[in-house]
Write a structure and sequence with these properties.
With about 60 residues, the protein is α+β, with helices and mostly antiparallel strands. The protein has one domain. Helix content is about 15%, strand content about 35%. The chain is built from 1 helix and 3 strands, in the order βαββ. The longest helix has 10 residues. This is DUF4177 domain-containing protein. It comes from Calidifontibacillus erzurumensis.
């Protein structure tokens, strides 16, 4: 079994750039035993603009008993 972690990275309002560097977030979580699974932008299609307001990084690791 696995446990999952979802990390939300929001975009800056004016520039549209992410508030955090996703590469650094992935590296940091990898050092803690998390494996990067997917990047997901849930509001991309519903935001009404060409880009969403945030995305989520999805991580997994074996469930620790």
């Amino acid at each position: 079994m696995f446990e999952y972690k979802f990390v939300k990275i929001e975009f800056k309002k004016l520039s549209g750039n992410p508030k955090e560097d996703y590469r650094e977030v992935i590296k940091s979580h990898a050092e803690q035993g998390w494996r990067f699974v997917q990047i997901f932008s849930p509001d991309f299609a519903t935001s009404g603009v060409g880009a969403g307001s945030y995305y989520e990084l999805i991580f997994e690791r074996p469930l620790q008993k």
